[in-house]
Amino acid sequence: MIFYISIGQLQEKISQSYRIHHIYPDFGTVLMEMYQGKEYITEPPAPPEIQSIMQLNDSDFLKASNQLYYAFSSEKLLNNTDYDFVPDFDDMVTISQFFRTKNVIHTHDCFEIDYVFKGKCELTFLDEKRILQEGDFLILSPYAQHTTRLLTEKSCVYPILVKEKTFDAVFFSSLSDIDILSNFFRQILTNPTEPNYLLFQTTNSADIRTLVKLQFLERFRMDAYVNRCDIYLLNLLFVNVLRNYNTYSQFSYYDSGQDYTPILRYIKTHYKTVDLELLSKKFNYSIPYMSKIIKKMTGNNFTETLRKLRMEEASNLLMKSDDSIEKISEQIGYNSSDHFARTFRKYYGISPLKYRKKHQQY
């Protein structure tokens, strides 16, 4: 039997369970309770007025979305511990994430694409935690251990779940050989069991937001063309992400696939003022994970990396300028010339003044 429950009903049931038990409920358990309590309808709801909903502002769009109905199979619900949203005969599906559902580390045998439509969410990926901001577009590889958690009641994330075979058969051939996405997907399809993600910061592109809304609404049409339209829309979405992204970052187990050079470049150009907390916020990594990245990139921890950059610049200024020790100290980010002098002596084994005198002789 196919039964239907609205998004708003599901969220209210989840919130009600949390208020009563003070723990985040499992989505499958909530769905089973609603099924057993006959909190559903069996007649297919009328298709939504897609064009009317698309004309709404974001807040009203989310309110209208609460009136839409998900379709569930009682047979699948009764025979599966974890309810699977992806229809058996479709290539992909776009859903909405619910607030205060139980979050456990899990894997999929499909790609998961998460778009942060509103607010923030927390991504846990292996041993890494990072905060995803509004406009972030995340692609997770199959079999990657992860979980995402909405951080506020008003946050909204749209996960797009795409079967792995769909990329091989449909999407991959349409991607250019030289762009970031092609390289990412090629690595995954060549080594399908290695966990990876690719994160784009899209700075809230209006084009991307529109396409994600269309992608989400498409499944509620419930006609024979949904799957084909989903594929076309996702192709458009990929192209617009490549066209509109601001920055990107990648986690990969492949040595050749890691791309943390923007982090190192930022440290080199902001070594006077940067600290680990600022750097972590800038690139949306946790402080412990940012420390691991820097150690892997440079062979040194953050403090040692920063000291090396400052000392190299101090050496350059001492040899090529007549600036005072106080001025050089300030130029490279030290508040105290005495602190700078002690650090310099420890690093080079000689005082700044003696270093200048020695090297300006040549």
Question: Topology, pairings included?
Answer:
Elements: E1 2-6, H1 7-21, H2 27-36, H3 50-54, H4 58-65, E2 69-73, H5 74-79, E3 92-94, E4 110-118, E5 121-125, E6 128-132, E7 136-140, E8 146-150, E9 156-163, H6 164-171, H7 180-190, E10 197-201, H8 206-218, H9 226-244, E11 247-251, H10 261-269, H11 276-283, H12 287-298, H13 302-320, H14 325-331, H15 337-348, H16 352-359
Antiparallel strand pairs: 1-2, 3-9, 4-7, 4-9, 5-6, 5-8, 7-10, 10-11
How is this structure best described in words?
The protein folds into three domains: 1-84, no CATH class; 88-255, Jelly Rolls (Sandwich); 260-362, Orthogonal Bundle (Arc Repressor Mutant, subunit A), CATH 1.10.10.60. The protein has a six-stranded antiparallel beta sheet. It has a three-stranded antiparallel beta sheet with strand order 6-5-8, with no helix packed on it. The model is unreliable at 253-257 (pLDDT under 50). The protein has helices spanning 7-21, 27-36, 50-54, 58-65, 74-79, 164-171, 180-190, 206-218, 226-244, 261-269, 276-283, 287-298, 302-320, 325-331, 337-348, 352-359, and strands spanning 2-6, 69-73, 92-94, 110-118, 121-125, 128-132, 136-140, 146-150, 156-163, 197-201, 247-251. The protein contains 16 helices and eleven strands. By secondary structure, the protein is α+β, with helices and mostly antiparallel strands.
Gist of the model:
With 362 residues, the chain is an alpha+beta fold.
Work out the number of β strands.
11
Please state roughly what percent of the residues sit in beta strands, choosing from under 5%, 5-15%, 15-25%, 25-35%, 35-45% or over 45%. Answer: 15-25%
What count of structural domains?
A: 3
Q: Strands across the major sheet, in which order?
A: 3-9-4-7-10-11
Question: Helicity range of the residues?
Answer: 40-55%
Name the CATH class of the largest domain.
Mainly Beta
The CATH topology of the largest domain is given as Jelly Rolls
Structural class of the secondary elements? alpha+beta
**Mean of all residue-level pLDDT scores:** 86
- List the helices and strands in order: EHHHHEHEEEEEEEHHEHHEHHHHHHH
List the uncertain runs. Answer: 253-257
Largest sheet geometry: 6 strands, antiparallel
Distance between the termini: 88 Å
Shape: elongated
- The CATH architecture of the largest domain can be named as Sandwich
CATH homology group of the largest domain: Regulatory protein AraC
Radius of gyration: 26 Å
Question: What quaternary form is this?
Answer: single chain
Helix count from the secondary structure assignment: 16
